[in-house]
């Protein structure tokens, strides 16, 4: 049917919305898969790139990307605002990220100065975050329920990580640079997928980091899901580095077996995201977030306390289930609380908080493990989540009492 008014876009059909949800979910999935392919053998990778101290070098190699994520997420939003579109920037970020992975793979055999490796890694992160964050914003723009849309994002993130861990472990068996080439190929596919999606950015919305901070001041209740985003991504960063090296050294696992162990967390985290997201649409956000956070940190501590590999793997499954319960409800809460014409700004702030959390999990977790040992590092990661729950849950329940309409 032709649109009678060319100035007003024709509302998308349900089928188009569903197609876009799938395409955007695949974009998020591919970006996360590319990222996590490197985790199971990151110590081998930095060693092949010429680093000496593998724990310290692994810490800064992972941290460089997420420092770029935190710094650049607002700049990508501002660039998108300048032209009123998001799709071209998703494609540009993906292609730039692919170029960064290729450059790392080409530099590797030359044994460059590790400072150059970190610079390239930082630039790759600057590009990749554009594809990731703006694809998340485009998901938030879709109709069909915030829980459903953020559940789609959550299952993309979880399944990308779940597959990245075991596939990355097997790729390391082929050579330390094989995951870099695979990551580059995935991001090139993202650039093609972005062409299938319709831009639905609300007119006049600005999505820079400055706007995200201003929105946080105008809507201070957003600090609640932002705080949970920080803590949840902190544990993800912790497992990406410290958990990987813990399983490899404590239990003598190969990169392939390490990847399979990490997948015990990420597989239930992926498979349960979408149904838990829809559940939060039905029963509200309070129960999934409060119930999940109350025991999530304890489960993280349980992984570090386990004396056997079987016990640690059971703990990883429990952490994955609890994370799946919390994650889509937390993301949906951001969309619930933000004004309808400021959702992209709110999601950008959520992603920035998550990137800072991942950075803290990698850097602080790595430093604690290096100085005080693995048990102290697990205490830092699990204790942070428990402390957050103790501080934030009363504020969360007060928010529920004041804004019942948000919570179903």
Structural class: mainly alpha
Number of helices: 15
Q: Report the mean per-residue pLDDT as an integer.
A: 80
CATH class category name: Mainly Alpha
- Domain count: the total is 1
User: Compute the gyration radius: what is it?
Assistant: 20 Å
Helical amount among residues, as a percent range? over 70%
Detailed description of the structure:
The chain has 408 residues and is mainly alpha-helical. It has one domain (17-407): MFS general substrate transporter like domains (Growth Hormone, Chain: A, Up-down Bundle), CATH 1.20.1250. Helix content is 80%, strand content 0%. It has 15 helices and no strands. It has helices at residues 14-36, 42-48, 54-83, 87-107, 114-141, 146-174, 178-193, 209-218, 223-250, 255-271, 273-283, 286-305, 309-337, 343-372, 374-402. Mean pLDDT is 80; it is low at 1-13.
